[in-house]
Amino acid sequence: MGKAEGALAALSLFLAWQVAALAVQAPVLPGPLAVLTAFVQALPRGLLWHTAVSAWRVVASILIAVGLAAPIGLVLGQIKRLDVMAAPLIYITYPIPKIVLLPIVLLFLGIGESSKVFIIALILFFQVLVVVRDASSGVRPELIYSVRSLGARRRQLLRYVYLPACLPAILTALRVSTGTAVAVLFFAESFATNSGLGYYILVEGWGRLAYPEMYSGVLAMSLLGFTIYLALDWLERRLCGWVQLGK
Amino acid sequence: MIRVENVSFAYPGKEVIFQRFSWQVEKGESWAIIGPSGCGKTTLLYLLAGLRLPQEGAVLVNGQMVRRPRRQTGLILQDYGLLPWATVHQNTALGLTIRGVREPQRQAIVTQWLARLDIADVSAQYPSQLSGGQRQRAAVARTLALEPDLLLMDEPFSSLDALTREGLQNMVVELGIESILTSVLVTHSIEEAVFLGKHILVLPLSPITQGTVIDNPLAGQLRYRDQPEFYRTCERVRQTVERVGHDGQG
Q1: pTM score, two decimals?
Q2: pLDDT (mean) for B199-225
Q3: What interface predicted TM-score (ipTM) does this complex get?
Q4: What is d(CA A134, CA A74) in angstroms, rounded to the nearest whole number?
Q5: Across the interface, which of A146, A160, A240 has its CB nearest the CB of B80?
Q6: Residue A204: its pLDDT value, please?
Q7: How confident is the model over B94-144, as pLDDT tens digits?
């Protein structure tokens, strides 16, 4: 998507929003200009801090999920015997909607940061694990042979073959899961907390009938998801130049 | 240089490919291996490269038993050897990087081989941006940059069109590969085997206990393709391949 197309899409969205606001003519749907004004005013008055808290929770979850799932996926992809043992477990646990585990996670980890980060990381973990395992096992044996013949041992195979082979899959899995991660974040921040955008939207906005503030929070959460998406896109362009050639 | 002694090999759960198979290559010789599809040509190359180990017998190179890939053995594969995520320059430098050769020495070696193989102008491109011929030149550059004493090639030019294939076969002759190192080429092309192999090993269908050796002293000359002897040798190899394909052991 080019810059012009992006700007046109954003403009269309704002126009549709403005038309809807004019049609509804009610405080529950303020126009984009009113929300943008409220957004800018709210930033220094706490919105920025709530956004930073939410951003930290998502980024920490992504890093933990990738940090744990990528090595396990790489090992499973390379060692068939282990994969055969782990496959039924992954098959059974992968489709479980992890969000239903939130009450259990809260019981074990409490209502602090760790439970929120854990539940998001858990969701991302399975996405990354499965794609890394598949990408790792899908590396052509001829490629491994040719690099081994150059003198590569396991560590160098990991660095020069398996990791680059899995990187596009990891980034795609994260990009696909970003929406889910932010949605789960919203849910996890909607109770038993006094920070984060979920709290801001529900308590400081919706609970106080302060609709421009509520929409400011929604806008901040959308921007958070969009920024993560853009960052992953940037990383893919930076690190996976060869993939871009095929697009 | 190479001694294959009573080697037996089978992939797990599959039929035996080699059964007490023996073969010998002297230093500086250029060999071509040919035989019916699926007979075990590539497997033999992998055994020589140390990528597969025999269940019985031994493969020795320079008197040392091959238990893992050896530093001085270069391997060029048909199509999948280059890393898709690395540029031509990075691919060519890969073996040197793995072996800890530092800059600027690495840069100098890579630059020299890219120029010698006429791919310097595509050094910043990825394999998917190259033609088949350029890709194989990059694979050759990467292998020769390591200065191997034994070069193994597994159908290196089979996926290329006829003209490009001939060009690369000429390049192998022009580089003098057959005169500077010991080389073993696996191919399914009789013409390629005759053009490049001073000795041709014709393998029968598996289980292989022995092959048929055809000497071909005129190989390795650019004008060999135009000589009547080339066609006579091609015919001889063709008849041998057909015979061992039908009769079993050669």
Answers
A1: 0.79
A2: 90
A3: 0.81
A4: 9
A5: A146
A6: 85
A7: 999 999 899 899 999 999 999 988 899 999 999 999 988 888 889 988 988
Answer yes or no: is pLDDT of B151 > 50. yes
CA distance B23 to B36: 18
Backbone phi, psi, residue B206, to 5°:
-75, 155
Quick check: B69 and A242 CB within 8 A? no
Beta carbons of B126 and A149 less than 8 Å apart: no
DSSP B225: G
| Residue matched to tokens 């308590």 | A203
pLDDT of the residue at A247: 61
Q: Which of A65, A79, A174 is nearest to A117 (CA)?
A: A65
Regions of chain A where pLDDT drops below 70 = 1, 246-247
- Please name which of A49, A9, A69 lies closest in space to residue A194, comparing C-alpha atoms: A49
State which H helix or E strand residue A80 sits in.
helix A80-93
Does A151 sit within 8 Å of B95, measured CB to CB?
yes
CA B145 to chain CA centroid, Å, is 16
CA distances to B59, B80, B104, B110, B162 from B147, in Å: 22, 21, 17, 12, 28
Sequence-distant (≥ 6) Cβ neighbours of residue A233 within 8 angstroms = A175
Q: How many angstroms separate the Cα of B106 from the Cα of each of A151, A185, A225, B136? A: 16, 49, 44, 20
Q: Which residue of B has its CA nearest to A239?
A: B85
Quote the tokens at residue A68: 């744990």
Among A140, A145, A161, the residue to mutate for chain B (most B Cβ within 10 A) = A145
User: Which positions in chain B touch A160 (Cβ < 8 Å)?
Assistant: 83, 86, 94, 98
CA distances from B27 to A129, A166, B22, B30, B151 (A): 49, 41, 17, 9, 11
